[in-house]
């Protein structure tokens, strides 16, 4: 469990800047399509060669729904948002996801404990604090994407817990493959095109998203959904902005002040509340 949490905390936290760089030459939906096709295709082939069973017809139906919810209406919309919305506002939008997940979980009969609700609220407050003073600009399309993405991701995450799905690795690979097709269709319908060879740096960023964001991060998240409570599985939404801020300070020379440290400690406290089990 610890390795899976580290993957979604640290690796997904690093993808904020990876997406920003890749978007220089890759349009939002086609970026999602390409990275998911490479990651899902490689994983699917390797798993089949190792004898892992392919999804059944019934499982494919659930995978199609999840591919739309978690890939097109979540991942690709976050890419779209990062074109016109400040990183701080995207972080706040994503951080609302555990709140939606807690609500949807309660609606389906799996009620978060009082301590988990408190941890969710503390973590969200920490993300708000972390982004005080940052630029909060947004175009209408980007703002709509920021609102839809966490709701879709939360509903898909909670809905998937009661579905008949393959083993986590095969489930992740299949969802990425199907999602790549849907994202490509939407991107082409919106007029997205790659008319010339992308530059080296955006391409390396895209490949980093394939490995860190899709193969390791997404697979770890799918595993967590089926082995831990929703509040803990979705707690990455609070830690990712902290990692993004730390990367910006260490690698990009961005400001890192006492205000950020206080916010990070508050987020950490919220995550601890959601992580530590009762006796």
How would you explain this protein's 3D organization?
This protein is mainly α. It has one domain (2-275). The protein contains twelve helices and no strands. The chain is globular. The two termini are 18 Å apart.
Query: How many DSSP helices?
Result: 12
Q: What is the strand content?
A: under 5%
Tell me, what's the shape? globular
Coarse structural class: mainly alpha
Total domain modules: 1
List how many beta strands DSSP finds.
0
State the major sheet.
none
The quaternary state of the protein chains shown equals: single chain
What's the SSE pattern?
Answer: HHHHHHHHHHHH
Cα radius of gyration in angstroms: 18 Å
Which regions contain 5 or more consecutive residues with pLDDT less than 50? none
* Termini gap: 18 Å
- The percent of residues in helical segments reads over 70%
Average pLDDT level: 86
Features:
12 helices, 279 residues, mainly alpha, 0% strand
